[in-house]
Amino acid sequence: MFNRVLFATDFSDHAETAKKVAATLAREDGNKLWVLTVLEPLDEPLTMVDEPPMVSPEVWEMEVEEEEVELEHEDAVRLHQDVAELEAAGLDVTEIIRVGDPAKEILDAAEEIGADVIVLGSHSRRTIRDVLLGDTAAHVAKHASCPVLTICSCGEGRKRSPKQAPRD
Fold first, then answer.
1. Residues linked to residue 34 through DSSP beta bridges, in sequence order
2. Which of 93, 99, 152, 164 is deepest in the core (most CB within 10 A)?
């Protein structure tokens, strides 16, 4: 049914749950799984203080670039680990790393590979920004040309006490 599965990850708990679903969909013989992560470009320099840096603009720019490279490296390592885990389970997997707006990059990747389904985690907490502008999962679901399966690990790990039957 879904021969070409695109799984988009941000390495959150929701994405971990979505990865399991994507792997299940891609398990059939001949199915292919693409694992995508999107790095958002840094609009502002990384800093832990509100004060301007005490170095020249050239040195500051170089430090910011080094931090961006480190963040990209960390995500690449995590993506490689996810792909290795899925390949060890016998799946045919290709990894994709992109930089840009996550929703746009997910939609573009889906078109390029001819995805039959997109699987991604959805965060249950919504901010005002999410409500006004739409979160990534909602934007992808609205604009994708293929089915989108959004997975929320909401409540996973929470213990629920069973309801007791009323006593006579």
1. 6, 94
2. 93
Q: For residue 1, what are its two tokens?
A: 């049914």
| Token pair recorded at residue 86 | 């899925």
Mean pLDDT of 129-149: 80
Residue 8 CB burial class (10 angstroms; 0-12, 13-18, ≥19): buried
pLDDT tens digits for range 94-109? 999 998 899 999 999 9
pTM: 0.74
Cα separation, 51 vs 47, whole angstroms: 9
CA distance 56 to 58: 5
Q: What is the mean pLDDT of residues 41-61?
A: 60
pLDDT of amino acid 164? 43
Instruction: List domains and CATH numbers for the chain.
Output: 4-44+53-151 (3.40.50.620)
| pLDDT grade for 161, boundaries at 50, 70 and 90 | very low
